[in-house]
Amino acid sequence: MNDDPVLLLREDLRDFAGYSSARSEKRDGRVWLNANEAAWPSVADGEGAVRRYPDPQPAALRERLARLYGCEPQQLLAGRGSDEAIDLLVRALCRPGGDAIAITPPTFGMYAVCARLHGVRTIEAPLRDTPDGFSCDFAALADTVEREAVKLVFLCSPGNPSGSLLPLPQIAALARRLRGRALVVVDEAYIEFAEGASAVSLLGSERNIAVLRTLSKAHALAAARIGTVIADAGLIAALQRCQAPYPLPTPCVGLALRALAEVPLNTTKARTATAMSERERLAEALRGLPGVRRVYPSQANFLLVRFDDAQSAFDGLLDTGVVVRDVRAAPQLGDALRISLGTPEQNAAVIEVLSRIARRAGVAA
Fold first, then answer.
1. Contacts of 92 (CB under 8 A, 6+ apart)
2. Strand 150-156 relative to strand 76-80: parallel, antiparallel, unpaired?
3. pTM
4. Known EC number(s) (predicted)?
C-alpha cells in the first residue's frame, strides 16, 4: 500500500496549484509595484511597517518554530492559530457529502464545527471515563474509522476538556493500522504543560500523522493567532497551496519572533513550570472541598471538575468576577466546569470562593 499522505488529499486537489500572490513570487527589487499596495504609509502607521503585504511563510519564523518543535522547516506550515489548521485539513482532505472525520468526545468543538461547515460527516468514538481519567479506546476508534469513510482522525492530547495525555505508542499503532486510509491529527495545544513527549517524534516512522501546535497557550500569544501544522513535507506543500494568501500579519510575526528568542523562551519555561506546580496545588485543594465530586488528573493548564451543584459553583465564582468555562453541555460532563490555571493569587481566590460556597451549603443542609 502506498503510504504517501498526499494521496489522502481530495482527488480534485492533488494537482491544484493554488493562488500565486504577488509576495509569493520570490523576486529581487528596489521599487515594488506588483501588488497594488498603497504608495504612501497610512497616517496610522507612520513608519509604513504594514503598508506591504506580508510574506506568506516567513523563513525566520518557520526556522524558529521548527527548532522549537523538533522538525524541519519544510515539515511545518504556520497560520491563523490551530483553528485555521483544522479547517485547512478538513477542506483539503475531505470531500463534501462523502468523507467523514472521527472525533473522541468530550473534545475540542472546532473539529466538528469545521466538518459541518464543509459538509463533512462527524463520526464519534467517545472517550472512556476511567478511575485514572478519560482514556481513548484505540481499538474501537480504529474499527469506527475502517467502517466509515473517515479521512481525518482528530486526537486532542492533552485533551480539552479532559486534560488527559494519550500514549504515543498507541497513537503510532493507530496510524500504522490506518496507513493509506486516514490522517491521524494530534492536537497538542497544551503539550508544554504535559509530562510527556510530543507526537512530532513519531513523524519519522508514521507518515500519516500530523501534529498541531500553537503559541496561544504556554507562549501567551493568543491574540496573535500563530498556529502550526507539522507533517510530511509533501503534505505540507499541498496544504500551503490550499491556504488563503497572507495568513500571517506582519505585527503578529514580529511578536512571535520576539517570543521565540532565547530569553523569552527561558521565561516561558519557568512560567510553565510554575503553572504545573499550581495545577497540583489547586487540584489538591479542590479535592478537599465538600461538594466537589471529582477533580480529574490534568496534563494541561486547566482542571476538569465535577460538582454536586455545578450551577451554584459557576454562579458563585461569577458573582466575585471569576469566569470559568461551563462544559455541562459536552458529552459525559453534565456536572462539570473547566477551570483554567491563573496566577497563584487568582488560584487562591478560586479556592476561597468555592470554600465559602461549600460552607454555606453545609449550613443550609
1. 9, 10, 13, 238, 239, 242
2. unpaired
3. 0.96
4. 2.6.1.9
